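Sequence only, no structure available. Ideas?
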Amino acid sequence: MRRLVSDYNIIIRGHADIVLEFERLRKTVVQHVRQNELAEQYVDQLDIKIALLVKNKITLDEVVKHQKHFGGHVGTLLSSKDISSKDPFDLKALNKTSRRKLEQYQELFFTLQTQPQYLARLFKRIREQRLEEKDTKRIEQLTMSLFGLAQKRREEYWLLKLMARSLREEVDGCATLQEFTRGNFFWTKLFGSFVRSPRDRKFLKELLGTVIRENIIDNEELDLESDPMQIYKSAINNEELRTGQRSRRDPNVTRDMALKDQETRATFIHNLQDLRDVADQYFSMLEEVLHRMPYGVRYIVQQMFEELRQKFPYESQEQLLQVAGHWLWRSYIQPALAQPQHWGVVDRGLSNVMGRNLNAVNKVLGQVAAGRLFGGEDLYLQPLNSYVTEAIDRLQDIWVNLIDVRDAETYFEIDEFNDLFARTKPTLYIKLADVFAIHNLVIDDLPTLCPSQDDPLREVVRELGSAKNNENELLHVSSTEITLTLNPKFHEQEGKCHRPHESNIPNYNRS
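Reply:
I predicted one. C-alpha cells follow.
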C-alpha cells in the first residue's frame, strides 16, 4: 500500500512539473512572438528611413538615431532578462489596493474574452471610423495579446468565437451580397494575425510547396507566357542568337499578326497547356490535403457560409459558397502563393522567370476561385475558359467538403460554462502596458460596447476607474509583463457567493 501511495505521489509531482514546464515554454513563445513584432516594426520603419535617405529627404544621422531608438540592434529589442523572467508578477507582493485592481482587470479580461459581442461591436465601430493603419494594427496586436496569441485551445476557441461573432455583426449590416464582398472588415485583419502561426505555415507549405518546387523552381525550361507579342519577340531574339543573323520577321506587328506566326502560335498553345496542367496539380493537391487544413480556418469559412445563407436566403447556395471560398482564397492561400518565400513555402527566392510563371498560375487559380471566365481584358487566356468552367465546378465540391466540420464546442471540447467549473482557472500572460491600453480602448468606446446603461461590463469598468490612475498605482511593479488568473465576476455578500449575472453567459442562439 505504501508503495502504491509513493508511486502515486511521484506521478502527481511529475504531472505538476510537466504543467509548470508547459507554462514556462508558453510564456517564452509569447515573448519571442512579441520580439518578432518589434523586429517587424523596426525593419518597416528602417525601410522608410532608408528610402527617404536615398531621396535626400533626411540625413544619415536620423537613420542612426532611429537605430539607437530601438536599442542599437534588432536582437536587443527584447532583452534576454525579460525572456528569462520566471515570476513576472506576484499578487502577494502588492498592497491591498493594487491587488484589488489586478483582480478587477482579471474580471474585465475574462468578460472580454468570453463575451464576444463586446469586441465585435468595437470592431464594427473601428471600420466605420476608418482609423489609420498604425492604429488598427495596434488594436489588432492588443486583441491577440488579450487571447494569449491563441497559444492554447481555450484561447483559440474564444478567438474563433470572436471572429465569428464579428462576422455576424458585419453580415447583418450589409444590405446586399455585393456590399459584403466589397467590405474591408477589421475581423479579417485579426484572421490574418491568427493564421501567421507555425501550424498554418506548415499546412501552406504542404499544400503549395511541392507544386511550386517541382513545376516552377526545378523546371527551368518552363515558360508560361500567354502574351503572343512577348512570345513573338522572344522567338525573334532566340532565332537571332541561334543564327547570328538578323531575323526576317518584322518585330513591329500587332498581337493578332504575331499569333499568325507559326512558331509563335505553337509556343502559345504549348504554354497554355502547361499553364492548365500546373493549375490542375494545385487542385489535386488541395483535394489531397484538405482534411489537414487547420480547423480554425475551415470553421471561419463555414460560419461565413451559414451567416450569408441566413442573411440572403434568396441567393443560391452555390453563389454563397462561391463567395466564402473566394474569401478563403484571397485571405489565406493566395498570399502564400504570391510570395512563397515569405511564408516558408519554399526555401529560396525566385528568379524573374520563376516569379512570372508563378504569377501566371496565380492568375488562373484566382479566376477559378472567383468563379469567373476570362473576359476581354484577358483575351489571350480565353482559350482556357473551358478548363476554367470545369475547375469552378471542381472547386465547388472542394468548398463543400471544406465547410463540413464539427461545431467548435465539439472540436475543442469546450463550452461557455467550462471556466465556471474548471479546477484550474485560465491564465493570461500579458504586457502591463497592454493591460492599460485595452482598458483605455474599452473606456473610449464604452457606449459602443455597452449600448445599455445596465450592461454588466459598465459596472466592471466603473469599479476599475481611470486607466491612468491604475497605471500610477502599479508603477512599483518591476516587471513589464504579468500573469493574470482570469475569473468571472463574483460578488460575496454576507458570506454568500453569487453566480455571475446571467447576461454574462454567452448566448450563441441566433436571435
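The first strand starts at residue 427 and ends at 431.
Hope that gets you unstuck.
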